[in-house]
Amino acid sequence: MLDAAVRVFGRRGYRAASMEEIAELAGVSKPLVYLYLNSKEDLFAACVRREAVALTAAVRAGAGDPEPDVPVDRRLWAGLTAFFAHTADNPDGWAVLHRQARTSGEPFAAEVAAMREEITGFVTSLIVTAAREAHQDPALTARDVAGLAHALVGAAESLADWANTTPDVTAREAARTLMRFAWSGLGTLVRDGGRGPRG
């Protein structure tokens, strides 16, 4: 039922989607849909929540657990590749998260914002850990790199939209594009521990 709902919401949008169409695609009766999920709003919220959890899990699994011998740029690369692979493999789910939920009201937008904060926090921790290890500087805080992490996540979201609508762009190509764009700044932070030029 949720698979059918994600497909309809992702392709038609929250407003235009109908419970009848979702029920028909799922092969169940409309009353059964209402029995499990009381309203169209509840069904959409369940879709947003499921897709957010799946995307976050894909990024974390891609980046892997911290290992002493694995440099942060390799973990970041793997996480980005997993992100782009997931959004490419689940275009309707990505549309639900990136386009529909953000513009369909506060409860849905809040779910997406929470997902984004979790991913941004994860990216922040990767960069902080790398910079601390490179400079043996335990005083470096998440705030020192939070802006870069937010910029990187925002760029990844925008690039996923481009990659998913541009023929023959692979997840690895999208990840490579973003790493080329971002790692000069992130690499500088890791190298100088955030003590570069101040504007």
TrEMBL record:
<dbReference type="InterPro" id="IPR050109">
    <property type="entry name" value="HTH-type_TetR-like_transc_reg"/>
</dbReference>
<dbReference type="InterPro" id="IPR009057">
    <property type="entry name" value="Homeodomain-like_sf"/>
</dbReference>
<keyword id="KW-0804">Transcription</keyword>
<feature type="domain" description="HTH tetR-type">
    <location>
        <begin position="1"/>
        <end position="55"/>
    </location>
</feature>
<protein>
    <submittedName>
        <fullName>Helix-turn-helix domain-containing protein</fullName>
    </submittedName>
</protein>
<feature type="DNA-binding region" description="H-T-H motif">
    <location>
        <begin position="18"/>
        <end position="37"/>
    </location>
</feature>
<dbReference type="Pfam" id="PF00440">
    <property type="entry name" value="TetR_N"/>
</dbReference>
<dbReference type="InterPro" id="IPR054129">
    <property type="entry name" value="DesT_TetR_C"/>
</dbReference>
<dbReference type="Pfam" id="PF21943">
    <property type="entry name" value="TetR_C_46"/>
</dbReference>
<dbReference type="InterPro" id="IPR001647">
    <property type="entry name" value="HTH_TetR"/>
</dbReference>
<keyword id="KW-0238">DNA-binding</keyword>
<dbReference type="InterPro" id="IPR036271">
    <property type="entry name" value="Tet_transcr_reg_TetR-rel_C_sf"/>
</dbReference>
<keyword id="KW-0805">Transcription regulation</keyword>
